[in-house]
Design brief:
The complex is a heterodimer. By secondary structure, chain A is mainly α. Chain A is built from eleven helices and two strands; from the N terminus they run ααααααααββααα. Chain A has a two-stranded antiparallel ribbon with strand order 1-2. The two termini of chain A are 33 Å apart. The relative contact order of chain A is 0.11. By secondary structure, chain B is α/β, with parallel strands linked by helices. Chain B contains nine helices and seven strands. Chain B has a seven-stranded mixed sheet, with helices on both faces. The longest helix of chain B is centred in the N-terminal third of the chain and has 17 residues. The mean pLDDT of chain B is 88. The chains are: A mainly alpha, B alpha/beta.
């Protein structure tokens, strides 16, 4: 009895939970790297070798990304805010690089990169919720077209303005809802909001990994080859079930009970899937496979955070509405 | 190493940092004498090509630039002569000016490679401008020197003509396969072919 109590006490502290989670991730990575090593030695055909090389590049990138998040959490709130500000910056770069803009948009782009992006993350760090939610959808929406119109170039004007706004929404506004979880005050959960962030990122990213594994092993029926050739129904269903199970099993780090954790995991899984799907549609339209080449094996930053971008605001609102 | 060389290295690192520069080699990189011809939208164009080349090749790869611009201030002269080792040519030569073709020829005779912007000026429009005829005369006089088309993507958007703060977009430079003047090819045919080869290198995401 005493043992159980101390155990739950340790797990209930922030540090205890973080050590358990990151220790688990470390174990998974060691296993994944070992499997990758064995597969690489056994792969005979050229196409098999290419798939395994890509798998191992992905695993290696996961080491780095998990280390980055771990260090950011260790550094505290500012570290977390800066990490996601960097993710937004890189994603916005990738988005704007593949978007048609003209010389007249130069100033609007400068505003996006050097004013709206830093300001949005400043509001997150200041926990200024009111302005945080309207800065980009209202003030960015109104001010950026003014700046573009002063470029005195009307060619495809609406399209250009809309694309700048869209890039800001996806890459900055939506992504900033991940560190914004730190501003939520939940009774009986004080000081542990960072675990909500861990829950969100882990469930959504794990879903991508599970979908990849299920798809590679059993994928037959294509979901929609015209938009995303690699997504299959088998991968999707398998990935969702695995990821919802993971979410439910993580209920102890959240203010949710098991069923709530499972339901929320399902919702953010569905949103995350369509995040990747919608951004795939844009990539196909632009004639590219990846948004960039920052993270080896994964493509660009936006390829990695597209699912988070769609799930983070919904997750944020669910928690804020029902738990605060 | 001279101070000028360090400045050059610093500028190349800065360019790579701001643009996230990605070089794409469609033909393997060989160390031989070449004329790189590229689209021209920004003062930084030459630097992206330079930054994409290995350091050993940079030293002997010289930009061809307009003397009317690069001779006009102390900083510009320093960059031209001490850092980039530019070949400065008069863009509208008067009778007393040296012939631009001779100036480029002198550099090629020394074994140097050149970076040339055959549109002749920074281009603000959507389409590549027609090429100036200098490229043809050079190709005819130096048939052994390979001509490499190089497409610079996005830099014109990072820092278009007349702006001072760069937008941090990602850039790439695509090096195409070598071109030569063909037997019996006349001036216009050759220039049009080079121009088309350069356009073909542009990523499909242009419009």
């Amino acid at each position: 009895m005493i043992d159980l109590n101390t155990q739950s006490l340790v797990l209930n502290t922030l540090t205890g939970s973080l050590i358990a989670i990151f220790g688990g991730l470390l174990a998974v990575l060691v296993v994944a790297s070992s499997i990758g090593y064995v597969l690489a030695r056994r792969a005979r055909t050229e196409s098999a070798q290419a798939v395994i090389a890509n798998l191992n590049a992905r695993t290696n990138a996961w080491w780095l990304m998990i280390a980055a998040i771990g260090i950011a959490i260790y550094l505290g709130e500012l570290g977390v805010v800066l990490l996601f500000a960097f993710a937004s910056f890189q994603a916005l770069r990738e988005f704007a690089s593949l978007t048609y803009t003209r010389r007249g948009d130069h100033r609007a782009l400068l505003w996006s990169f050097f004013v709206f992006l830093p300001l949005q993350y400043y509001l997150v760090s200041e926990k200024w919720y009111g302005l945080f939610t309207i800065l980009i959808p209202v003030y960015g929406f109104l001010l950026l077209p003014i700046s573009s119109s002063l470029g005195r170039d009307t060619t495809r004007f609406l399209e250009r303005t809309a694309k700048v706004q869209w890039g800001l929404m996806i890459c900055v506004y939506c992504i900033s809802h991940i560190p914004a979880l730190l501003m939520l005050d939940i009774a009986g959960y004080e000081g542990k909001s960072v675990l909500l962030l861990v829950f969100l990122v882990l469930v959504v990213q794990a879903s991508d990994v599970f979908q990849y594994i299920w798809g590679k092993l059993f994928g037959k029926t294509k979901f929609s080859p015209a938009v995303s050739p690699s997504k299959s129904w088998e991968g999707l269903i398998g990935g969702w079930i695995s990821s919802v199970a993971l979410g439910a099993s993580l209920y102890w780090i959240t203010p949710f009970n098991v069923w709530e954790a499972a339901l929320i995991a399902l919702i953010i899984n569905i949103m995350g899937f369509f995040g990747g799907y919608v951004l795939s549609a844009i990539k196909r339209d632009r004639g590219v496979k990846d948004w960039g080449s920052l993270i080896e094996g994964h493509g660009g930053m936006l390829d990695r955070v597209d699912s988070l971008s769609f799930s983070a605001p919904v997750f944020f609102h669910i928690v804020r509405f029902f738990w605060t | 190493m001279s101070i000028g060389e360090w400045v050059g290295r610093g500028l190349c690192s800065f360019t790579r940092f701001v643009t996230g520069l990605r070089p794409i080699w469609q033909a393997p990189l060989e160390q031989r004498q070449r004329i790189f011809i590229a689209n021209h939208r920004s003062h930084g164009d030459f630097l992206t090509i330079w930054a994409a080349l290995p350091i050993v090749m940079r030293r002997r790869t010289r930009p061809v630039a307009g003397a009317d611009y690069w001779e006009t201030s102390k900083v510009r002269r320093y960059l031209s002569y001490q850092v980039f080792n530019s070949v400065l040519i008069p863009r509208k030569p008067s009778r007393t000016d040296p012939n631009p073709i001779d100036l480029m020829g002198a550099a090629l005779e020394k074994g140097d490679s050149l970076i040339l912007f055959p549109e002749g000026t920074r281009n603000l429009g959507d389409e590549l401008l027609p090429f100036k005829s200098g490229l043809y005369h050079i190709a005819k006089a130096f048939p052994q020197v390979e001509i490499i088309p190089v497409w610079i993507e996005n830099l014109g958007r990072v820092m278009p003509k007349g702006v001072f703060i760069p937008v941090p977009l990602l850039c790439s430079v695509t090096f195409g396969e070598a071109l030569h003047l063909l037997d019996g090819e006349d001036r216009q045919e050759f220039l049009d072919r080079c121009r088309q080869k350069l356009i073909d290198l542009a990523p499909s995401t242009q419009s």
